[in-house]
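Structure in, sequence out. Go:
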C-alpha cells in the first residue's frame, strides 16, 4: 500500500493533463494525524526548483499536513512566476483541506525551464482530493509521479510494536548524490517528534539514496520527505526506527538502480580499507562516474585498469602499489598490478560487484551505479521532444 500502509494517511494519483501521454500525473498524500511531525532532505544543487525552495521553508516548521506532487514539469528555472505557481498550488491544497499553506509541501518533476499549466494543475488538486483513500490511493500516487520510470517504486516495513513505515519514490535519470531520488515521500504511524525524524532521515538517506550515482547528474528537484502521523501510538527507540527506515530507503535505492534509464547492469562499488568513510565514498563516486569503465562493464569487459585510473583521480589516502581490485569476486588486480586472470570474471549477470581495497585503514562504503548504454544516450537525446 506504499505511503498508505501506515495508519493516518490517505493518498491519490490522478490525471490532471500535465503529461502528453494522458497518464496519471498528479499525486496527493495527506496526513490525518493526530501528529503532523515531519522532516525533509533536499538537493544540494545550487540551482533549486521553486517547489524545493518552498518546501525547504515549510519543513523548517517541522510539520506537514499534506504533500502535492506533479510529474510533467519540474517548475525549475522559472523565476518568480514559477515560485508564485508553487505558492498557488500549496494554497489550493490548503483550501481543499481547510488548513494553512504553511504546512503543505510541494514537489515537481519533469522538464526544466517551462512553467506549469496551472489551468490544468489546480483542477487536478480538486480531483485528487476527491479520490483520497487509504486502499488504492498509495499505489495510484506512486504511479502518478513517474516520468521515465518504467515501474512505480514502493516499499513498506512493520516495526516492533506494530508501527509501520511506507514509502514511494520516482527516479530513472539524473540519479546522482544528494538524494538521487528526484522525489520520495516516506510515511510512518510511529509517534516521533520532528527532531528525531530529521536525524533518522539524514542517517538513513546518507548510506542509501545519497550513494546512488547512476549518471553523475544532480537534479534541481531532489526531495525526500518523512511524515509521521502518530496514529499507532507506538514510540520506537530512535536507533530501532532509524534501522527500519534505512531498510526502506535501501529497498527504494535498489528499485531506482535497476530501473535507471537504459541500464543493463546494476553495479555495486565496494570500497574497503579506506582511511575514512569520506575517502571510501569519494573513491566510490569517482569509479561510478567513470564513463570508460561504465562502457566496459556494458561490454562485459573486466577492464580493471579503468578502476585504478578512477581511484587515482581522487585525494583519498592510498599507495598505488597497495591497491587491490576484485570484479565479481575475482581479484584481477593485486598490489597495483595484475592479479588473477581476468578471463575468470563472469560479467553476464545483471548484478556486478567491484571491490576496491585501498589498504589504508578500517573504513568502507558502497556506492551504486549502472553501465552506460546506447539506450541511455538515445533516451536522453530525445527527452524534451
Amino acid at each position: 500500500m506504499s505511503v498508505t500502509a501506515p495508519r493516518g494517511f490517505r493518498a491519490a494519483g490522478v490525471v490532471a493533463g500535465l503529461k502528453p501521454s494522458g497518464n496519471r500525473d498528479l499525486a496527493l498524500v495527506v496526513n490525518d494525524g493526530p501528529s503532523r511531525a515531519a522532516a525533509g532532505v533536499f538537493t544540494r544543487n545550487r540551482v533549486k526548483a521553486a517547489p524545493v525552495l518552498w518546501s525547504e521553508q515549510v519543513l523548517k516548521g517541522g510539520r506537514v499536513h499534506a504533500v502535492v506532487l506533479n510529474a510533467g514539469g519540474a517548475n525549475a528555472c522559472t523565476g518568480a512566476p514559477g515560485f508564485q505557481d508553487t505558492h498557488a498550488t500549496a494554497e489550493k491544497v490548503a483550501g481543499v483541506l481547510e488548513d494553512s499553506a504553511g504546512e503543505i509541501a510541494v514537489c515537481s518533476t519533469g522538464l526544466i525551464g517551462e512553467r506549469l499549466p496551472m489551468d490544468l494543475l489546480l483542477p487536478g488538486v480538486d480531483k485528487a482530493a476527491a479520490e483520497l483513500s487509504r486502499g488504492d490511493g498509495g499505489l495510484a500516487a506512486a504511479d502518478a509521479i513517474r516520468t521515465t520510470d518504467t515501474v512505480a517504486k514502493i516499499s513498506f516495513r512493520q516495526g516492533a510494536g506494530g508501527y509501520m513505515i511506507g514509502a514511494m519514490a520516482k527516479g530513472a535519470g539524473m540519479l546522482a548524490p544528494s538524494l538521487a531520488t528526484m522525489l520520495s515521500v516516506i510515511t510512518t504511524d510511529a509517534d516521533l517528534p520532528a527532531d528525531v525524524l530529521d536525524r533518522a532521515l539524514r542517517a538513513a538517506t546518507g548510506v542509501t539514496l545519497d550513494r546512488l550515482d547512476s549518471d553523475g547528474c544532480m537534479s534541481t528537484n531532489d526531495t525526500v520527505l518523512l511524515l509521521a502521523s502518530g496514529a499507532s501510538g507506538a514510540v520506537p527507540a530512535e536507533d530501532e526506527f532509524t534501522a527500519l527506515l534505512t531498510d526502506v530507503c535501501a529497498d527504494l535505492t535498489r528499485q531506482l538502480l535497476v530501473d535507471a534509464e537504459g541500464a543493463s547492469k546494476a553495479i555495486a562499488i565496494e570500497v574497503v580499507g579506506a582511511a575514512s568513510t569520506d575517502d571510501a565514498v569519494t573513491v566510490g563516486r569517482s569509479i561510478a562516474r567513470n564513463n570508460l569503465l561504465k562502457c566496459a562493464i556494458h561490454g562485459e569487459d573486466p577492464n580493471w585498469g579503468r578502476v585504478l585510473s578512477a581511484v587515482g583521480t581522487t585525494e583519498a589516502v592510498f599507495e598505488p602499489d597497495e591497491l587491490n581490485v576484485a570484479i565479481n569476486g575475482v581479484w584481477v588486480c593485486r598490489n597495483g598490478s595484475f592479479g588473477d586472470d581476468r578471463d575468470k570474471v563472469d560479467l553476464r549477470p545483471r548484478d556486478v560487484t567491484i571491490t576496491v581495497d585501498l589498504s589504508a585503514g578500517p573504513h568502507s562504503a558502497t556506492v551504486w551505479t549502472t553501465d552506460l548504454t546506447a539506450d541511455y544516450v538515445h533516451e536522453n537525446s530525445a527527452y524534451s521532444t
